[in-house]
Amino acid sequence: MIRLPRLGAVVLLLFAVSCSRAMPEPAPTPEQRGPQPGVTPTDTGAAAARPAVPAQPRAYSRVITPGARTQRGLFIIHQIGERLYYEIPRQELDRDMLLIARAVAGTGSAGNRVLRWERTGNRVFLRLRAFAAVADTSTAIHRAVAATSFGALVASFPIESFGPDSAPVIDVTRLFTTNVGEFAGINGVAADRSFVEAVHVFPTNVDVVATQTGSQTPPGSPPGTRAMSSTVRMSWSMLRLPETPMMPRLHDKRVGYISTPLVDYGRTEHRATPRRYIHRFRLEKRDPSAPVSAPVKPIVFWIDRATPEWLVEYVKRGVEAWDRAFRDAGFENAIVARQAPRQEEDPAWSMHDARHSIIYWRASMVQNATGGQTVDPRSGEIIKAEVNMFHNIMNLLRNWYFIQVSPLDSRARTLPLPDSLMGRLVQYVVTHEVGHAIGFPHNMKASSQYPVDSLRSPAFLRRMGGHVSTLMDYSRYNYVAQPEDSIPLDLLVPDVGPYDRFAVMWGHTPIPGATTPDDEKPMLDSWARMQDTMPWLRYETSDATNDPGSLTEAVGDSDAVSATALGLKNLERVMKSMLAVAEKPGEDYTVLNELYGEAVTQWSRYMSHVAAVVGSAESQERYGTGPRFFPTSRERQREAVRFLNANAFRPPGYLMDGEILRRIESEGIVARVRTAQTRVLTTLLADARLNRMIEYEALAARDAATYTVAELLGDLRTGVWGELRASSVRIDVHRRNLQRAYIETVDARINPPPRPATPAPAGPGGGGVAAALPQTSDARAILRGELIEIDQQVEAAIRRAGDSMTRLHLQDVHFQIRRILEPQR
Question: pTM for this structure?
Fold first, then answer.
């Protein structure tokens, strides 16, 4: 049991994991021959054939021989040949230690665990620890929590000897070279092909690097594929956790933080109370009385030496962009970036040292970047953070920037982009990923908090610091702005914004007089309520799955029609310049193919933003201060469908540019358009959306105007089947595909394959059925009625078909509708 500082709570083990047995160890080296340490009585198989455990530990000099290579730090580490010994000071026993496992070469299993070294008689055990249950030591229930929480023993080691201070000396080689599950980076670690490579010891941690060979099935292999031999280089850093955990700060759904869950059984509520601790670095003012002070220990990110030289300064700026946000929390110079030292500058410095937060530069074709953190589970304190920058992220950044804002920036109309521009784009990604690394999740709500027309105003953008209130949104570049708006180029790319500064302030500002997390709640609540009057400080609503303001890749408020119309204007400009930009004598058409694909994806994405308005509800996370969900008005939903009829269901000619298409493909545009249009249709006619619209209609006041499923289908009939009203009916290939997709989509709703209803969790009103199926809701009747109406129009239109392909198509549509409405029994 461990008492949390100032909390009076004891953190207890929650789970147990079965102990892994050792695999046979490699034969001893010549210098190891002679008296050998035994194994514990529980070892079996080949290991059991080794000599029995000596009755008493041997003399220190017989174990740690003069040829040992010794390092001192958290433990005293001895390497003798291929054997690795830990001499564990007594004060380090029964201390919680964080094990951070990483694959540094090859593909291996990584993860973090909390462990504790314990001595019993002449053995040392390594026990798993977890911290998901708490109870105050003064309560009776803490005994019950303790009884149900018992950590698994990962490994057992006979004590070979004792150091001068009675520190047990144990041989830990097999932790890293055999199949001990919690240390295995690969399945079935084979001792004869695994070995320790390097060991580094520091004041608070021990780092080990080893090669492990085992077997694994290649990713993506079909079932039954035989596993093949595979080798991985693993790094383990065992770090002593702080003796006094940081005082946690409680999570609040209104402010976006990654958090650690726990259950407090010792509180006075009439239930086991779920609680969450936000992830944050421990920042303490060097001068507590100063409004703004340097921290006792700043957040330091080390830049990988593999980072291209010309990008190092941009990476540094990307990290330190967060410093101005920490000033709002009362800290100056709180976050800094430094380049990792060269080997000759500091031979003991390791990128895998658990004390270091690193920005890795990965030689990879992956077009991505990631950020994350390792935390003390007792408090949410970030112990180590990391960012992974994959080299080919630059290719993705080029594509995004060209497709979205090249009409606004002449630098982007020549490829490759100049280094200064690409450096700025990399800086943006680094800042975003550092945001994750210091504790922030995405906030897709932020991009919908500025009016669309304001995003065309240089004065507004300068005042707010850009087109989105946080760079933790996926609101890439300001595609709403038009060339005539003359937006300064530095405002096209997101930067640390008002929400970011608010969130850092909320999570890190010291609250005078607070000695427990509960003491902080009134002040934190008052800060969170700032969102009521300043919407740009809002975070995503936790369970709002249909909020049109919480979309990825969107720019501007929930008026998606206006934003998309402006985006389409820029996209048309992009298409007109694409061939001139991407075609270069002596080069193939790879770049043109990529850019064209990105343009079609962007067009499809715009359509999805508009489709999300239908059957939607805007939201604001609240704590006991009023409604959280607000169904979107009938007028806005109907406007969205009319926009889709005009733009999604009649694809723009600029995407059909034969000059481009005949350079990149011999076929494919018809299928590509059909796929994009089908995606819009299936979105609009999704089961959940139709049922939601039926519910909104049922809950609306009698005189309220709600957009109904019947109105949606009527509007879609106008957009998808508009040719049926013409005096001479002619339907081109894209429209024929669209109409077939409509019939297939409705068929899937009316006659889905049999599936059981999903029981909904029982709540205060009892159980229920989640997302009623169409055949058990009004949606089925409305869809059948709509097909009957369409079929009548189709029958009449067949006689007015202006060409044979149209006639054949309509006859087939009539046949398919009859099949759907009257399926064979």
Answer: 0.87
